Amino acid sequence: RIVVLDFGSQYAQLIARRVRDQNVYCQILRHDITAERLAELAPKGIILSGGPSSVYAEGAPKCDPDLFKLGIPVLGICYGMQLTCEALGGKVDNTPSREYGPAKCKVARTDGRPDELFANLPDELNVWMSHGDQVSSISDTFDTLASTPTCPYAAIRHRTLPVFGIQFHPEVTHTPLGGMLLENFVVGVCKCEPTWKLGDFADAVIESVRKQVGDRRVICGLSGGVDSSVVAALLYKAIGPQLSCILVDNGLLRKNEQKLVIDEFTNHFKADLRVVEAEDRFLASLAGVTEPQEKRRRIGSDFIDCFKAEAINIKDAHFLAQGTLYPDVIESGADPDGPAATIKLHHNVGGLPAELGFELIEPLRDLFKDEVRRLGLELGLPESLVWRHPFPGPGLAVRCLGEVTRDKLVVLREADAIVIEEIENAGLYRETSQSFVVLLPVQSVGVMGDARTYENAVAIRSVDTNDFMTADWSRLPYDLLARMSSRIINEVKGVNRVCYDISSKPPATIEWE
Ligand code: XMP
């Protein structure tokens, strides 16, 4: 495997993705991991990521300089290159010479050949620069491998150690041949075999789950979302009848959702499925509550109680399986070697606390979301499930602004179903990342036939995003919006006005509450 030391996580995750695209396993670690610990982990290569700091700034994140002595190939990218130079005798110019945007990079040749880092690449590359400082002198410990008109040391190599640095960003799509450069490092320099496959990954996980579980039982919460479905599919392959799934119907699901989840489940698994009908309980505890965080708290605690009550009935249940993904592990700092950077704000209601007394199994904790989707397809789950838009744990409660009531949920569910159906009919379901309806706590005047109406307003929300941390509103065609609006007003009793939400995130969030 390859490890990436994280100096500013936005870049580190992208680099890890690109390395995995070469079929080589890649893990992100804390930037201050010791050389000793790295030696124990024995990766085949180390990549130092970019980052927003200046190497001379107070408190700038540094790496253990001894890692350069391990004999493991190192590639420093941008800030990572500046650290490398600082550690091994180069000089970084800290009078900011900011450069942001595309550049043409000329590859140096020795005896008519480029360095192995640039093998099979053209003499001139389009690259993406994004830096404040840059390396101003490399002493005689490094050779120059490539340069741009404004950046004499765009790529360098240490004369005696397997240590490289590049000032530009090979991991972004604006460096079109960046993937080949990373491949040259990972496969050419580090000698990694490009053999890591999702299928192999699944086999290894299945094997280790079998060993861990023995003849005991595993419980898995099902939500109808892709993560919990893939977890269930993996576990079912591993331990078949020793798996019990629990679906808590909190009455806050979308139209026909319970039936859909049950149908999909029974089509694919012969495992035990228990459905907890808990609509009354959830609606009772939401009665009179209007504050969004309070809604979340009540739903979360009811969910745990319902789950616990059902789990107690399952004999020999020892493990609880959860769909924790790699970004959750990184962001929550749960991995002792992982960067502790930002803390995820969303507490997924599916995330059950450890005090429940089960041992946790998290088979997806090494994967990114799109890898989970690919794995789902490999495990035979249908496209319709694998590409489903995400749905928040607190469900329709955070889309029914103000107090949640049974009547309001009926209106919301119907309007929401129309929007999804129209998006699907327009062939835009995969293109949009999340589309739904919000029921607003306002009434407005309208006219239907000859009569005045005074009814609810709803908002359609549809966003495009890669990571759900930032998002833009979908530019849906006007005709489509017109169809949605007219269908909602005609078919959903109690709605006489439809708005389209044109706010991006930030500053708005995707959900309204
Ligand atoms: P926001 O509204 O913060 O949402 O832009 C980002 C993504 O997270 C989902 N979301 C939640 N998921 N529990 C969840 O499991 C929650 O409380 C929650 N709140 C928002 C939201 O649907 C979007 O995909």
Automatic annotation (TrEMBL):
InterPro entries: Asn_synthase, Class_I_gatase-like, GATASE, GMP_synth_C, GMP_synth_GATase, GMP_synthase, GMPS_ATP_PPase_dom, Rossmann-like_a/b/a_fold. GO terms for biological process: asparagine biosynthetic process. Its EC number is 6.3.5.2. Keywords: ATP-binding, Glutamine amidotransferase, GMP biosynthesis, Ligase, Nucleotide-binding, Purine biosynthesis. It comes from the Bacteria. Pathway: Purine metabolism; GMP biosynthesis; GMP from XMP (L-Gln route): step 1/1. ATP binds at residues 223-229. This is GMP synthase [glutamine-hydrolyzing]. It comes from Rubripirellula reticaptiva. The lineage of its organism: Bacteria, Pseudomonadati, Planctomycetota, Planctomycetia, Pirellulales. The gene is guaA.
